[in-house]
Amino acid sequence: MASEKLYLYPIWIRIWHWINAVLFITLLISGISMQYSNPENPLLISFELSVELHNLCGILISINYLLFIFGNLFTSNGKQYKMKSKGLFTRIYNQSIYYLFGMFKKQNAPYPITAENKFNPMQRFIYAIAMYVGFPIIIISGMAMLFPEIIIPQVFGFSGLLLTAMVHVIIGFVLSLFLFIHVYVCTIGSSISNNFKSMITGWH
Amino acid sequence: MQTLNLLRMKQNIFKYLFLITGFLCTVSFGFGQDAINENQPENQKCLSCHGNHTFKYMNEDFGIEIKEAMCENRLIDTIAYAQSNHGMFKCTDCHSPEYETFPHAGNLRMELMYACNDCHGGDPEYAKFHFDEIEEAFYESMHYNRAPDAFNCWSCHNPHSYKTQASKGGKISETVTYDNNICLKCHADVSQFELLTERESINILKSHSWLPNQELHFKNVRCIECHTQLSDSLLVSHVVMPKEDAIRKCTKCHSENSHLMASLYKYKSLESRKSGGFINAVILNESYVIGANRNQYLNILSVIIFGLVLTGIFIHTLFRIFKRK
Questions:
Q1: SS3 B220
Q2: Which of A80, B24, B218, B253 is least surrounded by CB atoms within 10 angstroms?
Q3: List of chain A residues whose C-beta atoms are within 8 Å of the C-beta of residue B302
Q4: B87 and B124 assigned to the same domain
Q5: Mean model confidence pLDDT for chain A
Q6: What is the largest CA-CA distance in chain A?
């Protein structure tokens, strides 16, 4: 555990992160409300409101994603998502073993947090996949659903709209799993709330 | 010798080709003959004038031939008529035989047109089309009640081109276009609209501006999906409701219990039971309706995966609590 405090999250990352979080959760709730639309289910928000919210938040999260892309292009934060393929599996395996067994035996984290490595190898891999694979797919398929006239009507005998919707929903589901795991893993710190505070103050 | 055999073989091939071609021509000519309306010669007399934009007649008194424009309302689309459900009829089956004389007598204009049930009512052969129920529904409709003298079957269904669409199992997009054009004939054309109402302005784009993805909705669903009362027995409901009663709730269609399955997709859903795991799967053959189409297998899989993740988190939390010391 580093005894000195590290300034890991500059202000633009924190702003991007919390905007992304609020928009993603709104998209998740409104998306579920549309996908499982049922006027008699009190847990879901109305279809009409869901459509409005999903459209608005979808556009806003896409703009916010551009902030993330440009921020990573023009600051050193982009390096945090780069990884060498050599030994990647071993590093992820070591980190998994630590989460599953090591941390309960009070072992030290195999890849401690530094300013250059603010993510452990597992985080680095999952965040990179979520942000550089999952997000582009869900944004592009979402934009296509927003302007459905641009979708090819038939693809190999299937409705193009259906395929686009399926891709959007499946990636949305995978990213929502990421959200749950992400929030849980964030409780693993020197205290349960420590990592959440870091994303507010910037200091770890 | 070999050359002679080859020559004979070639001749035989030509002979068989000639016979096959001749047979195919005869057969196809035969089929073509069947498709031609057997009343065509008699109708031809009427259609020589009413099937063209202009017609000619001889002014016997002055011995001159006169060419005139055919009134739009009296013009028949001959191809559409031949392909229509009524295409096999003689003109005088429905119109007075007195029309066979020209110039037509003036009082023939007062001839009352037949309604559907004048021919189809009580006929067991047409029972499956539920003409009697259609008539009852029509009398309940806003159209009839606003203009009882002017509105009749033919206001929507042109007897000279009418074709059953929804019950043929054709492409949904074609049914949508065909049926919506019936409404748009008046609702997008003031000259037709003002024949039946005193209202002078119509702007369906403005009155439907609240509808998200308006163009997509107009292309993929019929006006009657929202503007008619659902009927259990009729494939196409004929109770057109006042605009205040039209459906405006998205979830009427965008839900598991989608209204579309009882209207636009009613015939197809009765015909096809294959689901492939999708709820309201029949819609998926031609479209996708958010909320109405879900894959049950993916639903189950997602619940299992989500459950496993939550269980994993729960077990990990327990270990953290018990190994805290």
A1: helix
A2: B24
A3: 173
A4: no
A5: 91
A6: 61
Would the pLDDT of A15 be above 50?
Answer: yes
Residues B198 and B86 grouped into a single domain: no
Note the pLDDT of residue B287.
Answer: 72
Chain B hits for A161, Cβ within 8 Å: 287-288
Report CA-CA distances (Å) from B294 to A38, A138, B140, B277: 13, 18, 36, 8
pLDDT classification of A66: cutoffs 50, 70, 90: very high
Counting the structural domains of chain B, the total is 2
- Whether the Cβ atoms of residue B254 and residue B291 lie closer than 8 Å to each other: yes
| Contact call for residues B154 and B73 (beta carbons, < 8 A) | no
Q: What are the structural domain ranges in chain A? A: 11-201
In a domain, B220, yes or no: yes
Q: Does domain A11-201 have CATH number 3.90.1150.10?
A: no
Q: Write the DSSP assignment of A154-199 as a string of letters.
A: EETTEEHHHHHHHHHHHHHHHHHHHHHHHHHHTT-SSSTTHHHHHH
C-alpha distances in Å from residue A146, one per residue of A28, A153, A186, B151: 16, 15, 33, 41
The boundaries of the domain holding residue B244 are 113-248
* A contact test, residue of B248, B285, B290, B295 with most A CBs within 10 A: B290
When pLDDT is cut at 50, 70 and 90, the band that residue B312 belongs to is very high
**Euclidean distance between CA atoms A119 and A102, whole angstroms:** 18
A82 vs B127, which has greater pLDDT?
A82
Which pLDDT band holds residue A128 (cuts at 50, 70, 90)? very high
Q: Do B251 and A39 touch (CB under 8 A)?
A: yes
B85 lies in some domain: yes
Residue in A37, A55, A180 to test binding to B, most B beta-carbons within 10 Å: A37
Minimal Cβ distance to A37: which of B291, B309, B313:
B291
| Type of residue at B214 | Q
- The interface predicted TM-score of the complex, written ipTM, equals 0.88
Residue numbers in A near B320 (CB within 8 A):
103-104, 188
Report CB contact under 8 Å: B284, A162: yes
How far is Cα B143 from Cα B194, in angstroms, rounded to an integer?
A: 13
Q: Is the pLDDT of residue B279 over 80?
A: no
What's the pTM value of the predicted model, to 2 decimals? 0.72
Which DSSP helix (H) or strand (E) runs through B64? strand B64-69
Inter-chain touch A47–B250, beta carbons under 8 Å: yes
